[in-house]
Design brief:
Layout (H helix, E strand, L loop, with lengths): L3 H38 L4 H7 L5 H5 L1 H23 L3 H17 L6 H21 L13
Helix pairs in contact: 1-4, 1-6, 4-5, 5-6
């Protein structure tokens, strides 16, 4: 009886990571992607849209609409990874780790929105890795020790 909560802890961490990925994929990335058709229908020029929201790297502002399409791709991949995690699939775990890692690498370029991306992806990555590795030590036990 005493080991039941520990046995469920990795599963809870993986589910929480899936929720974080789902939030990030649907609300953050999906919302940006869904704003693109609205901007296009309203006839808002890319340069006008970039005036109201700016990235740290000016190059990204010049291609804001392409960045919005890219957000849709990232969002879809996050949702697929979250579904894989919720279905207890190893491919979902691998895709989630890749997506979190890529996001952490790119977040500095996507400031200010990168801060929220970093918090959600960083949190999900920590949950995934602690669920996978648990309390396993880094170094092997020394000979003669228990």
């Amino acid at each position: 009886m005493g080991t039941e909560p520990r046995a469920r802890t990795p599963r809870r961490r993986i589910r929480l990571a899936a929720v974080l990925l789902m939030i990030q994929g649907v609300l953050m990335e999906g919302g940006v992607f869904l704003a693109l058709p609205v901007l296009l229908i309203l006839g808002i020029d890319q340069a006008d849209a970039a005036e109201r929201f700016a990235f740290v790297v000016p190059y990204l502002n010049e291609y804001l609409y392409l960045m919005m399409v890219m957000a849709g791709v990232f969002g879809a991949l996050r949702v697929v990874a979250a579904i894989g995690l919720l279905r207890d699939r190893l491919w979902g775990f691998a895709l989630a780790v890749i997506m979190c890692t890529v996001t952490l690498v790119l977040m500095i370029l996507l400031l200010p929105a990168g801060i929220a991306d970093g918090l959600l992806s960083g949190g999900a990555l920590v949950l995934l890795l602690t669920a996978w590795y648990g309390a396993a030590p880094i170094s092997p036990p020394e000979p003669g020790s228990r």
